[in-house]
């Protein structure tokens, strides 16, 4: 067997990558040997010595030498777990999207739930409580129609949210690093220098930006103070885009009406901790009645799980054929 007959080697590292293994294998059109490393890469130096690609959420100086490595592929959009300054010269870092349908649907669901409180209505009626009904003069629900939505970050998620929000007759504005972006569903796009002015007219603020040094802590005390007391913050992006303490204070003091939070500032270390841990270790968000909480589920859908492995496999095929990669972030 000649050297060209040997399969290329790719390692898939960590439990979060495991759901993609079969999908990647099925979608590949070039010859690859896929090796799953469940957790500790330090125990896998022999495998990494031959790996040309790695699919992983985390990379740093703790990794053993991988002299043949040419591609680090994260299994999602965020690559904040990759220590870019530790990536060897000549190794490309790529990400993958395909989660925007799920994230945008979760975002609309969060806003609809804020307006209509269907969960509360269900629980009340199961108790035999009809007093919210129009027949008995209960308080009216809100509506998304006519509300102003400000999207921070007009990338794939931002555009998907804008398209769905426009279908609900919302007025859609966007704040983006590059103000020259446009979208048929967005009335106006402004730069980050206009963030606070734009937040001041929002009924809902949706974060759709990546976590970068520029966006870390972007929604701070000043940004929250710029929002109306009736406004709601929706964060399916990354927790640290928001100053955690500033948000907790704004919510507990009722300086904004509420928030829907799907992404967090810290996460459980393992499954045992994940079964019984408060959402935040620093602030008791779960004790507030003006928040909707979920455990980073927005983009984790059957559609995402089906589409992402195909896109990762296409990049592995491109690498094997010596073709340009897509979604290169470093």
Tell me about the largest β-sheet: 7 strands, parallel
The CATH architecture of the largest domain would be 3-Layer(aba) Sandwich
Quickly count the domains: 2
In CATH, the homologous superfamily of the largest domain goes by the name NAD(P)-binding Rossmann-like Domain
Structural category is: alpha/beta
Strand content: 5-15%
Give the N-terminus to C-terminus distance in angstroms. 35 Å
Radius of gyration: 22 Å
**Number of helical segments with 4 or more residues:** 10
SSE string, helices as H and strands as E:
EHEHEEEHHEHEEHEHEHEHEH
- Largest beta sheet: what is the strand line-up? 8-7-6-9-10-11-12
Q: Which spans of ≥5 residues are poorly predicted at pLDDT below 50?
A: none
Broad CATH class of the largest domain: Alpha Beta
Net shape = elongated
- On the 0-100 scale, what is the average pLDDT? 95
Number of strands: 12
CATH topology of the largest domain: Rossmann fold
Q: How much helicity do the residues have? A: 25-40%
């Amino acid at each position: 067997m000649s050297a060209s007959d040997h399969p290329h080697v790719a390692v898939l590292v960590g439990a979060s990558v495991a759901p993609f293994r079969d999908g990647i294998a099925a979608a590949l059109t070039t010859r690859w040997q896929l090796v799953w490393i469940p957790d500790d890469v330090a125990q896998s130096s022999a495998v990494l010595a031959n790996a040309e690609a790695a699919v992983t959420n985390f990379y740093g100086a703790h990794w053993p030498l991988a002299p043949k490595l040419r591609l680090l592929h994260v299994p999602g959009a965020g690559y904040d777990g990759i220590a870019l300054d530790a990536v060897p010269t000549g190794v490309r870092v790529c990400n993958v999207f395909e989660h925007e349908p799920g994230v945008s649907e979760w975002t609309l669901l969060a806003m609809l739930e804020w307006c209509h409180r269907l969960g509360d209505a269900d629980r009340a009626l199961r108790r035999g409580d009809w007093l919210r009904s129009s027949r008995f003069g209960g308080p009216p629900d809100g509506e998304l129609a006519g509300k102003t939505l400000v999207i921070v970050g007009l990338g794939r998620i931002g555009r998907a949210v804008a398209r769905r929000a426009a279908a609900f007759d919302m007025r859609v504005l966007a704040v983006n690093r590059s103000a020259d972006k446009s979208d048929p569903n967005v009335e106006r796009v402004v730069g980050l220098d206009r963030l606070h002015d734009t937040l001041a007219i929002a009924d809902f603020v949706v974060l759709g930006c990546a976590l970068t040094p520029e966006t870390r802590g972007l929604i701070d005390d000043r940004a929250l103070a710029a929002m109306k007391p009736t406004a709601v913050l929706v964060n399916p992006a990354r927790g640290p885009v928001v100053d955690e303490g500033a948000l907790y204070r704004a919510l507990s003091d009722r300086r904004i009406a509420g928030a829907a939070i799907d992404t967090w500032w810290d996460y459980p270390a393992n499954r045992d901790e994940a079964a019984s841990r408060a959402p935040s270790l620093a602030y008791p968000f779960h004790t507030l009645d003006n928040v909707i909480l979920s455990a980073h589920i927005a983009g984790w859908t059957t559609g995402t799980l089906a589409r992402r492995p195909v896109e990762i496999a296409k990049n592995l095929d491109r690498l094997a054929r010596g073709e340009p990669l897509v979604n290169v972030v470093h």
